[in-house]
């Protein structure tokens, strides 16, 4: 188990509803959440094998951006 | 390297891109806008996408090979949507029809241009040898290029062992041409036998030209494909507002689900079928019932897609969406009805189907007889006369018989304010034995008017009360109030001053004048509730008016009823007479209306329809009634003015719309009465009878020519006086026959309907 964090442009509840079906069916994701109160809209993923590249690719399919938080 | 290639390919495709703007739904913030852009840009075939979040639209530049549906699918996968105008198949059909008309027109014009010199050569320079060669060269493209469809169709018919008008044309012109070519190349064949070789180039080409002209007239008389379907679809809004978790949200109509709460604002169309859950308003339901007065809708009552909200706002729960709404059902049924009618086989094709084998038979018999009795030149004479029989079987007049009569018939209709869009209606009209009439807007004016005001006996200061009544009604939003206002305005009455105004749902209104006196305008319930006394004679009058299907409005102060007003949709002056005329001709007349049975009964009696009427009839029931009569073997004419009539109009054998009715009814119907005067109906049916008579007379002229010409061509006069058919005489006879047909058609113009 590994925790991944990303800065995103998942801005509001509407945006969360857009990415929900895609993250939910992403393999290797144990759980995830977006902190829309945070200006950087931090996406936190409990990884069970999913990589940062996988997450970025999935979000891109939905039209959203993700950058790793270091 | 790969990158460069992709760039080049993309740049090349860029020149063939389509730029289009679509409304977008599902965006809730600027990030969604970026999301939409990103999804589209990553869709194969999309060159660029730019979202305008402020007005919820996206400008997309994409490969022309890509369809908007693919863009829509890409966005839907992510939870957004764009709204696409579905292409109407009717439009495509309309374009094809227009192109077809243009083709025929070009062919006809070119045939005429090339035929003219051939005709001149044939009639005046028969002995000039080069004339034959010139005619040959000119005739070839006329027959085999501009007239190629005749030969193609004839070949198709022959493969099925059948014959029609095209067979007759192909046979006649083909034989004439081949015979003429032979005579041009090998004149010595005949000269050596002491026979003058004739050519029939002008006969062949004149036939092609005239038949093409006939087809052109026929095509012009055909109905333009109806755009009614598109207009019906336009009744449905493309987006709607739902209320979800207390928030307003706009979504495309295709996304709405049963059970969702929908908000409707003043002036908006109801997007789907449902039940009112909050608020109330008047809704114009004429699309469904045909009745012009908006109906009040309150909690628990049904509303339907396509109907129009008036001045209030309300919310309703979606119950039927998409293809299940009543409006969608009407659209489907109109489409089915329009497409399901079998084309009436042309009379002329029936005749040609018999005529061709007869002519072929005569030709063969002619050949045999000449071979048996001919003597020295038997074969030559046999061949010559049998060919002449085939050539002389002139289809010209046959081809012109119908279209010329119909052309004149349509013109005659226009003179009498009857627009005829479809030639078939003109041919069918004379067979009509049942006419179905809508009530509102067809038999009646379609507009509520005050017909009577009865004031209480011995009432003083009636004029003062009129001022109060006018002031109250001018402020009311009840649909019938306008009728009262219009009526009182004619008396040049000034409004009294109203200090307060209150609407009482379902009953009427209460108002106070500046001096504090209260007044009420409304229905009987309101008077009872407020304990307002009604004079016995006024009450009697009110009951009598209601028996006449009039709406009764009461006007009173807090003590007593001062007046009652009767409002009704007046029957047009000519309706009764028109119906009587139709009935005298043995035509059954029916009245169907979406209005209540009581009103239906009252109106039917007033116009002389004793039993054949029904009230509370929905649009599909009207069409079902048409089908029922048709199943009984009747030829049915449907007359209507509203959207609610469109299905029945599409189903009817002959459809007639009121000129002052809805565009959709006029689009579906094949005839339109411009003045909306029902007296035009018997005129239209009479015009049909005259036109069909004209067609039959034309066919007589066509046949009389063949009846005389064919035996002469066969050589029956030869034993008598040695006369054989001469091409010049053949051409003149042909022209005479066609002129007779045209002149006879023109006689129709002087007929009084």
Automatic annotation (TrEMBL), chain A:
<feature type="domain" description="HMA">
    <location>
        <begin position="1"/>
        <end position="67"/>
    </location>
</feature>
<dbReference type="GO" id="GO:0046872">
    <property type="term" value="F:metal ion binding"/>
</dbReference>
<dbReference type="Pfam" id="PF00403">
    <property type="entry name" value="HMA"/>
</dbReference>
<dbReference type="InterPro" id="IPR036163">
    <property type="entry name" value="HMA_dom_sf"/>
</dbReference>
<dbReference type="InterPro" id="IPR006121">
    <property type="entry name" value="HMA_dom"/>
</dbReference>
<protein>
    <submittedName>
        <fullName>Heavy-metal-associated domain-containing protein</fullName>
    </submittedName>
</protein>
Automatic annotation (TrEMBL), chain B:
<dbReference type="Pfam" id="PF00403">
    <property type="entry name" value="HMA"/>
</dbReference>
<dbReference type="Pfam" id="PF00702">
    <property type="entry name" value="Hydrolase"/>
</dbReference>
<keyword id="KW-0472">Membrane</keyword>
<dbReference type="InterPro" id="IPR059000">
    <property type="entry name" value="ATPase_P-type_domA"/>
</dbReference>
<feature type="transmembrane region" description="Helical">
    <location>
        <begin position="699"/>
        <end position="718"/>
    </location>
</feature>
<dbReference type="InterPro" id="IPR027256">
    <property type="entry name" value="P-typ_ATPase_IB"/>
</dbReference>
<feature type="transmembrane region" description="Helical">
    <location>
        <begin position="108"/>
        <end position="127"/>
    </location>
</feature>
<keyword id="KW-1133">Transmembrane helix</keyword>
<dbReference type="InterPro" id="IPR006121">
    <property type="entry name" value="HMA_dom"/>
</dbReference>
<keyword id="KW-0812">Transmembrane</keyword>
<feature type="transmembrane region" description="Helical">
    <location>
        <begin position="198"/>
        <end position="217"/>
    </location>
</feature>
<dbReference type="InterPro" id="IPR001757">
    <property type="entry name" value="P_typ_ATPase"/>
</dbReference>
<dbReference type="InterPro" id="IPR008250">
    <property type="entry name" value="ATPase_P-typ_transduc_dom_A_sf"/>
</dbReference>
<dbReference type="InterPro" id="IPR023298">
    <property type="entry name" value="ATPase_P-typ_TM_dom_sf"/>
</dbReference>
<feature type="transmembrane region" description="Helical">
    <location>
        <begin position="379"/>
        <end position="402"/>
    </location>
</feature>
<feature type="transmembrane region" description="Helical">
    <location>
        <begin position="351"/>
        <end position="373"/>
    </location>
</feature>
<dbReference type="InterPro" id="IPR017969">
    <property type="entry name" value="Heavy-metal-associated_CS"/>
</dbReference>
<keyword id="KW-1003">Cell membrane</keyword>
<keyword id="KW-0547">Nucleotide-binding</keyword>
<dbReference type="Pfam" id="PF00122">
    <property type="entry name" value="E1-E2_ATPase"/>
</dbReference>
<feature type="domain" description="HMA">
    <location>
        <begin position="18"/>
        <end position="83"/>
    </location>
</feature>
<dbReference type="InterPro" id="IPR023299">
    <property type="entry name" value="ATPase_P-typ_cyto_dom_N"/>
</dbReference>
